[in-house]
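This week, look over our next protein:
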Amino acid sequence: MSEERFLVTGAAGCIGVWVLRNLVREGVPVAAFDLDAKHHRLPLVLGDAEIACIQFLQGDISDYPTVENVLKESHATRVIHLAALQLPFCKSDPVAGACVNVVGTVNLFEAAKRLGLKSLVYASTTAVYGTSEEYPNEPLVHDAPLKPRSLYGVYKQANEGTARVYFHDDGLSSIGLRPYVVYGAGRDQGMTSTPTKAILAVAAGKPYHISYGGRYCFQYADDTARAFIQAARTDFNGSKVFNLGGDSVSTAEVVTTIERAEPSARGRITFDDKPLPFPSDVSNTALMAAIGPLHFTPLDQGVAETLELFRRALAEGKILAE
């Protein structure tokens, strides 16, 4: 059996750096592909010696020859596709969003097919769903109707369709995961990033205003990364997309948890009452049936670990508080 080797696209993003951290600490060979050559988030979660273990490959996911060459150069046996522009960037530049999110995904599936890979794992999003009012008041199942209200969600829905066609036409299997609100060191972009930014502000002794309220599935970046790795290692035949799920919490609970981790922050973190425009709870039952039990870090522990990583990064000059 050939050696397990991973290729991670969008590896400079938040989930990407946590995937790299987990694989490096397992001693698994991994290649990181991203347009961003700086990888400024990596030092938040990995030491210099660990970063030196990673094969870095720079390029544009929307350019097919580049993608095929990267896949060849990485000698990957497993692929985790995370490269994407997030919701605000797709809204401000729809053409770039489509090129990266849609064309980039087609490029990766096509390259994987041509090079003989049997499967890959990719990131979709809860933004493929509509508003909470459009669904029953219960944890949303993975096969609920898709009703995206943003270009970002539309692009991700297109990727789910692309994955199905590549399985039906070419036998290329895939698992798509739909994260919700991911938090942790490195989460500094996107519509739902403000709870993490609040933790960074607390680490720096500053106040912060979280931009939304309501309830949502709050997913620790380390757990999210582990789920992608676990899915990539699953012997799976088909093309399915699953909700990542997890505990549904409110912004008020998140703020209280941050205050327990750092009592001096009491009264210095505020938030809007307006909830996110998505269902408040999603079910991961189908995902666990497909790939097995998932690891979920208790909220208190995840927030405390994030706070400690930010304190260390601030002390070492690896990050600046907003």
